[in-house]
Design brief:
Blueprint: H1 11-35, H2 42-68, H3 82-88, H4 97-122, H5 129-154, H6 158-163, H7 165-177, H8 229-241, H9 244-256, H10 262-289, H11 302-341, H12 344-371, H13 377-401, H14 410-419
Helix pairs in contact: 1-2, 1-4, 1-9, 2-5, 2-10, 3-7, 4-5, 4-7, 8-10, 9-10, 9-11, 10-12, 11-12, 11-13
The structure holds fe (ii) ion (FE2) (2 copies).
């Protein structure tokens, strides 16, 4: 029986309520991570990437608090919250982006916020002070998340929002049927409802969705190296903004591989958000130069098309890990070159991007260990090199054959670059082959 007296919570109640909260945060985050590649809208993708990271941090903080309490079996006894988890597993099994976003942001997150607020109200701020600190942060950031969602939701088509209502209603009822978030699990089977409870488990599509406003292309890597300092600035920004593919990939791992250690999911949520930050760095520079993302420059998931569609998710892990290993050297050289040329903004973007990469290489190694346990290191190195080589061949092949899809973009990019202001020290721009930054432009796209 859950205590209803104000400020009275036994330790065991505190522990089990927060454990259930941790599981809700974790499983909702995993559903969002899996579904991000299937969401088409660019603004929604950016929102989800940030919220995946925030939610993982919330889950981590609540989990740590549970481990301090007397009943610290946080990662076992999944049966205790089985009915709740059965509902949360359905979150990405949606027929539209509106259903998905409505389910997460109009049903689950408000219920989580209500549970947190009720916990804060009903527990003792002195006895349970560490929980209060953690949950106050969770509540504040959740309110921010919901405010961000409201802005984007208002811009979505009314027909889509209306069509999502039955799904959201079922989800709300199913959560209640499972015992709610602030309460005990009912252990009941999933609330049956034709067309909702029988939907199959969500699977990651081999190629992510892209915003319907964006023009089609095949590769984001330009078919030739930059020829002017301004083109160098734009080429770097195109590479950055297209790191969207590298956000969607680790996020997809979080959903695609269930039952992994929590620390791996938490790190990977950060990895996915870092890559979205890198993409947003590129978008910010392009907007400053007067370019429209997806219209003046391509926004395409060429790594997914070139690797995942043909060779699957494991090949993607090996390829991204291989590409990331070249990242620090490439971005460090670019930082120096851009700084000397007189572009401190792009230089700073590369500097912070480079700072993130050490973490990404470690996360990639952790995933390799998790997906290929017992595989000899030499075998993993060989397969990584093989996947990177196949990817480079694919890109080079599209450039050779002219099937890169850049024909519509390149003349526009060249015209806009010609209008960009000059840099203070253009003599520091190094044409192809004469600096570490541009020596292998064609293959030196990064993650
Ligand atoms: Fe990156
Ligand atoms: Fe990275």
């Amino acid at each position: 029986m859950i205590a209803v007296h104000p400020n009275l919570h036994e330790v065991e109640q505190a522990s089990s309520l927060q454990r259930r909260l941790y599981r809700t945060l974790r499983e909702t985050m995993r559903a969002m991570a899996g579904r991000i590649s299937g969401v088409a809208n660019w603004e929604a993708k950016k929102m989800l990437a940030r919220h995946i990271w925030l939610d993982a941090e919330h889950a981590e903080a609540v989990r740590s608090r549970v481990l301090e309490l007397r009943f610290p079996r946080v990662d076992v006894d999944l049966e205790v919250d089985a009915a709740l988890i059965r509902v949360l597993e359905k979150l990405p099994s949606t027929l539209s982006d509106e259903e998905f976003l409505g389910g997460v942001y109009q049903v689950i997150k408000p219920a989580v916020l209500a549970a947190v607020e009720r916990y804060l109200k009903q527990s003792d701020p002195l006895d349970d002070a560490p929980s209060h600190r953690v949950l106050a942060i969770v509540a504040t950031e959740l309110r921010d998340e919901l405010a961000t969602f409201d802005v984007g939701w208002a811009n979505r088509p009314a027909s889509g929002r209306k069509a999502a209502q039955p799904w959201c209603e079922w989800l709300g009822e199913a959560i209640g049927h499972a015992g709610g978030i602030f309460g005990r699990d009912s252990a009941a089977p999933l609330l049956e409802s034709a067309g909702f409870s029988d939907r199959p488990r969500y699977e990651i599509a081999p190629s992510p969705a892209r915003d319907p406003r964006w023009l089609p292309a095949v590769t984001q890597v330009p078919p030739r190296p930059p020829r002017t300092p301004q083109e160098q600035q734009v080429w770097v920004a195109i590479d950055h903004v297209n790191e969207l593919w590298a956000c969607e990939l680790p996020a997809a791992f979080i959903w695609h591989y269930p039952g992994m250690p929590w620390s791996l999911y938490r790190d990977t949520a950060r990895w996915a958000y870092d890559e979205m930050r890198h993409a947003m760095m590129g978008e910010r520079r392009l907007l400053a130069y007067g370019f429209e993302v997806g219209i003046d420059v391509p926004m395409v998931p060429d790594h997914w098309v070139g690797i995942c569609v043909r060779r699957g998710m494991e090949a993607m892990l090996l390829a991204v890990h291989g590409l990331e290993q070249g990242g620090p050297k490439w971005k460090a050289a670019l930082k120096e070159e851009l700084w000397r040329m007189g572009d401190p903004y792009s230089a700073q973007d590369c500097d912070y991007d480079w700072a993130d990469e050490a973490g990404h290489i470690r996360y990639g190694q952790d995933w390799l260990k998790a997906i290929f346990p017992g595989a000899p290191k030499s075998e993993l190195i060989r397969r990584t090199q093989e996947e990177v080589a196949l990817w480079k061949e694919w890109i080079a092949g599209t450039h050779r054959s002219g099937e890169h899809g850049y024909d519509a973009f390149l003349p526009r990019i060249e015209a806009k670059c010609a209008q960009m202001p000059g840099l203070a020290n253009p003599e520091y721009f190094r044409p192809l082959g004469s600096s570490a930054a541009t020596a292998s432009y064609e293959a030196a796209d990064s993650a």
